[in-house]
């Protein structure tokens, strides 16, 4: 019996799908199957998939239904005791499945294992680390922010998947957060304290369609707060603040890819980040965001991009970031 099913939704993924699948093939744990849902691709995604000679790879083609629909279809084809989702442009370190499975086996009360994440750009350059340490009942922490970062992170017990049902196809941008919240409402989480997820941010991804991303994230929060118990309703303002902060961070992250966005939209997000949680004005990080936005306005996004590249290069050389995140 297959232990782990890896579900990969793929839409026009010809540029990245091979590298993504190779990161599964190179896993130190080998009892897995890959379920690729070709979600109406119009490029050479299928041709690329046909070059992979591994009988653990199964490809199913459908008309386009979006990432939630593709994941739901993948679940119906999956035979594993555990399921993990992997976006077609993200990557895993080679020990991701092994260590997450070990964590779940060591904590039978948990239904979900997740790891630390590094975001990367289109060329694979590391951008930002995310190293949360929440474990056990993480529902309240997850209401504040999606600390799993992406849909490519957790390993989930089949029983947990069955208990919450399908991804919500009405959410097109925050379906991951909604699904993790539904899992957290019923199951405990366990964390693998290691960078194992390489989450790619690209100008073609939903992460940089900022107006749409904000709307769908706010929609997901509204849904979540309607389901949350009365004693957790006070978390809404903190969650709102975190959403607006994330929009500002995504804009700053987009500068190195020449992504254009209305600066008034960015300022609106910065204002709402502070308005919904004024205590953030006590944090030095808030002032760093303000300074970055002001510099972008004053010296232009292009020059700010060059400055951020220089800062990242200096930080990377000091911390040896690349060698850290790619350790097996």
Automatic annotation (TrEMBL):
Signal peptide: none annotated. It holds the Pfam family Glyco_tranf_2_2. Residues 5-246 form the Glycosyltransferase 2-like prokaryotic type domain. SUPFAM superfamilies: Nucleotide-diphospho-sugar transferases. It comes from the Bacteria. This is Glycosyltransferase.
């Amino acid at each position: 019996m297959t232990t782990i099913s890896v579900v990969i939704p793929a839409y026009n993924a010809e540029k990245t799908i091979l590298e993504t699948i190779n990161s599964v093939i190179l896993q130190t744990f080998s009892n897995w199957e890959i379920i690729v849902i070709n979600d109406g691709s119009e490029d050479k995604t299928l041709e690329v998939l046909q070059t992979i000679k591994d009988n653990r790879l199964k490809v199913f083609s459908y008309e386009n239904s979006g990432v939630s629909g593709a994941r739901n279809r993948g679940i119906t084809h999956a035979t594993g005791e555990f399921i993990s989702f992997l976006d077609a442009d993200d990557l895993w370190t080679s020990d991701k499945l092994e260590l997450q499975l070990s964590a779940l086996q060591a904590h039978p009360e948990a239904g979900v294992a997740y790891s630390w994440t590094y975001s990367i750009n289109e060329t694979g350059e590391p951008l930002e680390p995310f190293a949360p340490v929440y474990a056990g009942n993480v529902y309240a922490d997850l209401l504040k922010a999606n600390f799993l970062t992406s849909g490519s992170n957790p390993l989930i017990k089949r029983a947990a998947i069955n208990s919450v049902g399908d991804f919500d196809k009405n959410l097109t941008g925050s379906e991951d957060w909604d699904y993790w919240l539904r899992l957290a409402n019923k199951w405990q989480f366990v964390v693998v304290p290691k960078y194992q997820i390489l989450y790619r941010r690209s100008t073609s991804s939903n992460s940089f369609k900022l107006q749409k991303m904000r709307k769908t994230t706010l929609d997901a929060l509204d849904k979540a707060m309607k389901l949350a118990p009365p004693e957790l309703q006070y978390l809404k303002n903190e969650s709102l603040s975190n959403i607006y902060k994330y929009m500002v961070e995504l804009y700053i992250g987009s500068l190195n890819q020449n992504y254009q966005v209305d600066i008034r939209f960015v300022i609106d997000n910065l204002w709402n980040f502070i308005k919904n949680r004024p205590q953030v004005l006590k944090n030095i990080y808030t002032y760093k965001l303000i300074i970055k936005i002001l510099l972008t306005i004053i010296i232009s996004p292009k020059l700010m991009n060059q400055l951020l590249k220089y800062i990242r290069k200096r930080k990377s050389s000091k911390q040896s970031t690349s060698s850290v995140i790619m350790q097996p």
